[in-house]
């Protein structure tokens, strides 16, 4: 893992520090665009990856922090948030709303707060990994930290 971080990740690291997260963002030699890629590069189980997935719940953005082993059940999520329809946001929408690209969306550090759901199965891990603002950056944190920094609602999303 290399130490020179892209600007987006440096800004995110400052945000994380301000939120009291001690995990340091790490840049990996290869893309962590998918949960499989991230788990392989880090050397952890795929279900210890907290994948940041942006959905549109009707017309409102919704960030789902899902275990890398899970496929989000959009019908269940729609019921949870009281939406008629929940769909995965297109890449351009993800970049516009989060300021980050698909495959690198962090749980925080977006231009505006985003309502967030957190997969309850992530709680079983002492350490989980989230994207660090780019497809090649990641950082460790605890489940409690993830819930606290996102203000997320813990629920079953798969």
TrEMBL record:
* Domain YbaK/aminoacyl-tRNA synthetase-associated as annotated: residue spans: 31-148
- Family annotation (SUPFAM superfamilies): YbaK/ProRS associated domain
- Lineage, top-rank taxon, reads Bacteria
What is a single molecular function from GO for this protein?
aminoacyl-tRNA deacylase activity
PANTHER family in the cross-refs: CYTOPLASMIC PROTEIN
The name on file for this protein is Cys-tRNA(Pro)/Cys-tRNA(Cys) deacylase ybaK
The source organism is Mycobacteroides abscessus subsp. massiliense
Gene name on record?
ybaK_2
């Amino acid at each position: 893992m290399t130490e020179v971080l892209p600007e987006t990740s440096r800004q995110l690291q400052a945000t994380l520090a301000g939120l009291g997260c001690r995990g340091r963002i790490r840049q990996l030699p290869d893309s962590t665009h998918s949960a499989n890629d991230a788990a392989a590069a880090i050397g952890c189980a795929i279900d210890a990856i907290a994948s940041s997935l942006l959905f549109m719940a009707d017309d409102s953005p919704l960030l789902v922090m899902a275990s890398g082993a899970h496929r989000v059940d959009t019908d269940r999520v729609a019921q949870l948030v009281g939406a008629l329809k929940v769909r995965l946001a297109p890449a351009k929408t993800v970049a516009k709303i989060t300021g980050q690209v698909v495959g690198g969306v962090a749980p925080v550090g977006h231009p505006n707060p985003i309502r967030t759901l957190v997969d309850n199965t992530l709680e079983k891990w002492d350490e989980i990994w989230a994207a660090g603002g780019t497809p090649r950056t990641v950082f460790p944190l605890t489940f409690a930290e993830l819930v606290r920094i996102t203000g997320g609602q813990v629920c079953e999303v798969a």
